[in-house]
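Why run this: before we spend reagent on co-expression, it is cheaper to look at a predicted model of the complex and decide which construct boundaries make sense. The entries below are exactly what would go into the expression plan.
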Amino acid sequence: MLKSPHFLSDTEVGGHVRTRLLTTRLLAALAATALLATACGSDDDAGDTNSLEMWTFKQAHVEPLKAAAAEFKEQTGISVNVTAYTPDDVFKSKLQTAAQSNDLADVFEVHAAGEDFVLGGSGILADFAGEVDEAWHGQFVAGVADAGKVDDARYQRSLKPEAPDAGIETGQLFSVPYTIGTFGVIYANKSMLTAAGLDPANPPKTWAEFIAWLQATHAKDPQNGGLTVGLNSPTTGFNWMLQPLAYAYLGKEGYQALFSSDKATAWGSQNGQKVLDLYDQLTPYWMPGTQTLSIDDADRAFAQGKAAFDLGGTFTLAAIKQGGMDPADVVYFGVPPAEGGASSELGLAPLALTGLSISAQTEKTDAAVTWLKFLTSKEQAAKFAQASLDLPGTELSADTLGPDLGAMTEIFGNADDGAYDPSDVSFFAPAYVDTQAGETLIRMSPLGETDAAATNRELGSIVATSWQG
Amino acid sequence: MAGLTTRRRVREALTGYAFVLPAAALFGLMGVYTVAYGLLLSFARWNGFTKNWLWVGFDNYLDILYRDPALAPLVQDAAVNTVLVMVGVPVLSVAAGLPIALALNRIRFLRTTMRTVFFLPYVTTGIAVFYAWTYVLAPTGSLNAVLGALGLGSLQQPQGFLGNPSTALPTLIAVSAWSSIPVAILLYLAALQSIDGEVLDAARVDGAGNWRVTTAVIWPLLRPTTAAVVLLGLRDALQGFQVFLLMTNGGPGGTTNVLGLQAYKWAFFSDLRPTLGLASALGWVLFVAAVLLASVNLRMLRSRT
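The model came back. Tokens follow.
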């Protein structure tokens, strides 16, 4: 029998061919698996100490941050890549999944005084209390400088079963304030006020005057003369209007008691009824359909002249400007106190809205701290404020902030002097859900489905239930 | 020889397993792992971030179904709305889809164009379309304007069709049906074209008019298709919440909240409270309901065909 050219038998040749085929197939399968694995993997530059990755949930902050990053690169040689993940649920999902795959950015802009503690307690954010010296700490606006620091009260609350920030320890610091502001700011269209015979230079000092203003603009133009707020997010009316109104009318103790387990003073009591009667006075004057609008939609509607008043916070000014309205055409004031209440004046204490945080997974802590110090320097904070129309957490003079933002700071009051502090939630039951309270309030105003008495009873039930959790 | 055959079989088996491995691994990761993960999560309390899960057994299920006075009413209200959607969307899909399919099946002139027009809502349905609907339905939207122009001012909604609690849910049902009717038309058209023409001719020879042919011959023959349309509508109504999220977010005042949206809110919009387990438990309840519906539907199909 002749040998094959390769001196192998047919069986051997067949065997080699099959072996090669098998090898080829296995290699192909391995290559496919490798390709899949590569596709699922990360392409980050974790080892490069001259570059940082930063994530934010605020699309409007991306350009100012990129401008700052360009200057930072010039000064330090460290590049910063800024990415926005919006809306909030996408940002949270991104953090959640990236944390599990060790693929987090180095630096984040997060919601302050809440989200930062949850992420810190979960081991996603680093505790960098040791990095914040006196000089850096002193740069921030008084009252918000420690917004990202765990105090004993917060630690005690974190021990309750429903608390979302389990794992935090007293003294830890998970963020420094980047933007600050407050809720309960009412914006009014100067032209519409003038057309209704009102003087924009003398905004209402009392709740009754505010209702009278609404009445006037609404009478002048029933379609476009009302009040708007993004009630599609049900908590806006409750948190931004009802709560400051209740605080001014009942005083701090009376207001906090509304959320207590004591039925004699909580929602459902006479105190709750009085506040809801005041709030119900708004019912005829809402912009038609405001209950269907998101916060951005409502700000846009106001900027387009579809409403005479817009309820929001200090941050709303930027949205109004983005909507195409000149801030000079707007007058703004805090929720005015009702006559006969505990306070005749209502200051609104500033709170940290967003904070800057460092990933617990990063190995570039020094570079991250340098970047945060750079961003919160007075020079960069001033540039950021002018570019974004957001108030920075760094203390700046009114002149530096510019005419629009500078005047905005006049709304602020000091919580120690009795100003309403929206960030103080220490008196809420851990299981209290403000969404349900907000929806209950919407059914009264603007929907008019229930009256103040029924709403008061339902809110009482919600608060009582929250203490059972 | 036997050894060679065995070796060959082993090699072939290995080759086969090697090829199947990536797909199996992917399925294991994306399918079995996530399903098992979701099931386990429904027995835990977790916010998606903390290091440890708190095991609570069946508490999540019991809480959302009846036990928790804060959670159960939310689920019950959402369940009522979901049932209304589950009835409304399939009924509208059949009520509108069948006549349109019958008409499209008979016309000759512009048949293709008309089919394309009626199928447009399906291929264009998406975020942009739902936002467009919100503008149409707004207080100053085109629907109110058209009603006013037609002298039907009493039907106008000053708060918009989505802003009035009594019209918001019916409006969302109509929008959901609008996006599902094209599929119904498509299925009915395919079924109509498969009906033997001789059957229809025989009925006509026996003296049946168009109405009689439609109700006594075509409708019974289309029963499996109707069952499929209804099942698809039920599935969409039970699990879908895109329309509700984008157009009302469950409002105004929670009047258009549905079960899928409630699960989504617990998963992503609870201010980082540990409610992911509740969302998962509600998801599993929905899954069981869907399986029950499917089996009932299958049984009905088998008994009628």
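The mean pLDDT of chain B is 88. The first strand of chain B starts at residue 44 and ends at 45. Bring this page to Monday's planning discussion.
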